[in-house]
Amino acid sequence: GAVVSQHPSWVICKSGTSVKIECRSLDFQATTMFWYRQFPKQSLMLMATSNEGSKATYEQGVEKDKFLINHASLTLSTLTVTSAHPEDSSFYICSADRGSKNIQYFGAGTRLSVL
Amino acid sequence: SQQGEEDPQALSIQEGENATMNCSYKTSINNLQWYRQNSGRGLVHLILIRSNEREKHSGRLRVTLDTSKKSSSLLITASRAADTASYFCATDAGGYSTLTFGKGTMLLVSP
């Protein structure tokens, strides 16, 4: 149990376009989901906490208008990178909290390359 | 700022050997978790140890926690090539659900 699906796994886009990444909890309801960014050989950096039915809580330094997060249901959160630029190229990972012991269940990640 | 700092940054061992990774943190915690990440993939939860626990086992994994030193260690016994991955500690502080991840240890287990 506790499977989180993230899609797409890899996306290449042109500079200036927007990219949407989906994160779904397949076999449980997740009131809270998290979005992270990871640079090569580095740790995860929390971008925002997504709560179902309310606005996301962004970490300091993360542009809300750049990284739009929507958590419309208990099983789906989306991250939209708007007007992507090459510096937005990174590995984005989502996770979901089942509300048990604060263990997070992670998606497989999305590698974004902006040309 | 990073809560957890793992050392070593990288560890290379032979199959069958034990691997020990350490994690230090700065503030009081509710619990500490260890996660594993295979290259280019998401993280997988390995084990959680509460702040009032000192040691915990799960299969070939052994985790210790020393809250006085604000440190934890992860021991993988009888390592296998399939254990090759990056290992991260993560801390949960106060009543918040967010986790703060350390910088990770890259483990390479050679056959």
- How many helix segments of chain B? 0
- Shape field of chain A: globular
Radius of gyration of chain A: 13 Å
Report the order of strands and helices of chain A. EEEEEEEEEEE
General description of the model:
The complex is a heterodimer of chains A (115) and B (111). Chain A is mainly beta. In chain A, 0% of the residues lie in helices and 53% in strands. Chain A has strands at 4-7, 10-13, 19-25, 32-38, 44-51, 57-58, 67-73, 76-81, 90-97, 104-106, 110-114. In chain A, strands 2, 4, 5, 6, 9, 10 and 11 form a 7-stranded mixed beta sheet that branches. In chain A, strands 1-3-8-7 form a 4-stranded antiparallel beta sheet, with no helix packed on it. In chain A, a hairpin with a 6-residue loop joins strand 9 and strand 10 (104-106). The termini of chain A are far apart. In chain A, 35% of the residues are buried. The model of chain A has no long low-confidence stretch (mean pLDDT 92). With 111 residues, chain B is mainly β. Chain B is 0% helix and 55% strand. Chain B contains no helices and 11 strands. In chain B, the strands form 2 sheets. In chain B, strands 2, 4, 5, 9, 10 and 11 form a 6-stranded mixed beta sheet that branches. Chain B has a 5-stranded antiparallel beta sheet with strand order 1-3-8-7-6, with no helix packed on it. Chain B is globular and about 40 Å long. The model of chain B has no long low-confidence stretch (mean pLDDT 91). Classes of the chains: A mainly beta (115), B mainly beta (111). Chains A and B meet through strand 5, strand 9 and strand 10 of A and strand 4, strand 5 and strand 10 of B.
Give a brief outline of the structure.
The complex is a heterodimer of chains A (115) and B (111). Chain A is mostly beta strands and 115 residues long. Chain A is 0% helix and 53% strand.
Key terms for this structure?
heterodimer; A: 115 residues; mainly beta; 7-stranded mixed sheet; 4-stranded antiparallel sheet; 11 strands; 0% helix; globular; B: 111 residues; 6-stranded mixed sheet; 5-stranded antiparallel sheet
